[in-house]
Every structure is written in structure tokens, then in C-alpha cells.
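Kindly review both lines to help learners:
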Amino acid sequence: MHESEIKIYQSVWKHMLVAIACLGCAIGAWLMVTSTGSSGPAKVAGCVGVIFFGGGGLLYAITTLYNWMRHIPFFIIYENRVEIYQPFKLTYHTIPLADVKRFRLITINSVKFIAVDYTTASLTHKLAKTSSLKQRMMAFNVEASGGAVENFLADGLAMKGQELCNLLNSRLKDNNRITTK
């Protein structure tokens, strides 16, 4: 049997490198704005770059440091469920393992995700209780991921994506064995 819960954290260094790259782009955009030889459109593009990269990089750095200082795990894997942290809601999204057929590692535009393949009954229930906008987003996700209505980022974690996927499937297998007894 496994430990009662496994906590998987975001990699602070990977996330801070992204934030530093964003801030570097913001500095370049600021130089476009302050340069005397820049034309009007270049200055507008520079302002947009400062807002987008500067604000985004700063927000990214703040949320990463907040999660790190508060020891907030991104994934918590229990015996019968998986919880994924939603940073802007400051809550966890729970996926009961009884509703899952399998987890698989997928790559979309060189970014690794964990795709969640739900059982038919739970997928039907999930689609029935969602809005039409969310159903359209799920349909897009099914097409992009090859059949899964939900994906979760596997890059930027303290654990490699394939190891995480194997761990999730191991827990799923153990949960299925316990529930069928």
C-alpha cells in the first residue's frame, strides 16, 4: 500500500527563469519606448510589451513565490482522488479516481500535459452539468489532446511528467483493485 498522500510541488527555479525572461523582455520593450529614434508604432508596441511582459512576469513571479513560501503543492495525490491547485481561485480541483479510466502524458506544442480520460458515465454526467461555453472548450480540448476533456500541466513541476503519469496510473490501478473487492 502507498502513503496516504503524495504532494508534488512546482519547481521554483523553472518558474523563476520564466519570470526573469518575461522581465527581460519588458526591459527591452521599455528601451523601445524611451529610445529617441523610435517611431510612434514602435513606442506603442513597446508600451504593450512593457504591460504584457512586465505585468505578466511580475504576476508570475509573485504567484510562484507565494506558493513556495506557503508550501502549497500543485498536485496532491490521495488513495481515492487527485487534487490540482488552481492558483487564481486559491482552491483545489478534485478528480475522484473512481471517475477516471486512465491518465496519459501528451505533448501539445512541445508542452507536456497529463490528460485525464474519464469513464463514460462520469463524462456524460460532467458534460450534462456544464455550460455550453465550457462544453465547447471541452470539445476543443478533446480534439487537441486526442480524446481527453481535461488536461493538466506536467511541465514546471518538481517531478518529471512521465513519472507523475506513472504514479497517477499506479494509484488508479490500486484504487480500482480496492473498489472491486
The CA atoms of residues 93 and 159 lie 19 Å apart. The chain has five helices and seven strands. The mean pLDDT is 87.
